[in-house]
Write a structure and sequence with these properties.
Elements: H1 16-19, E1 28-31, E2 36-39, E3 45-54, E4 65-74, E5 80-81
The structure holds zinc ion.
Residues 25, 27, 40, 42, 74, 76-77, 79 line the site of zinc ion.
Length: 87
């Protein structure tokens, strides 16, 4: 099947090596042995889902329900990566 212009995936017009930056987890934790605060430094993340409960008052079905919101968390320390870490 031939793709027309509309079905093409979005073009990546940047260079992964030059134009992107690895996001590093900067969550602070206390190293109990040394008694100092250290940054996590984790660079691998996994996707999880935050579950948001929807009140019956605003739910389309009139019953309480749950909306899964995808989020990423650090595989090293488990901290959730929020958008302000990306800014
Ligand atoms: Zn971390």
């Amino acid at each position: 099947m031939k793709l027309d212009g509309k079905q093409q995936p979005p073009q990546m017009n940047f260079d992964i090596d030059k134009d992107t930056k690895t996001i590093v987890c900067d969550t602070k934790r206390v190293d109990l042995e040394k008694g100092i605060e250290v940054e996590c430094g984790g660079q691998l993340f996994a996707q999880g889902f935050e579950l948001r409960r929807v009140s019956p008052l605003v739910s389309p079905t009139g019953k309480a329900s749950v909306v899964p919101v995808p989020t990423f968390y650090c595989l090293n320390c488990g901290a959730e990566i929020t958008e302000d870490k990306v800014q």
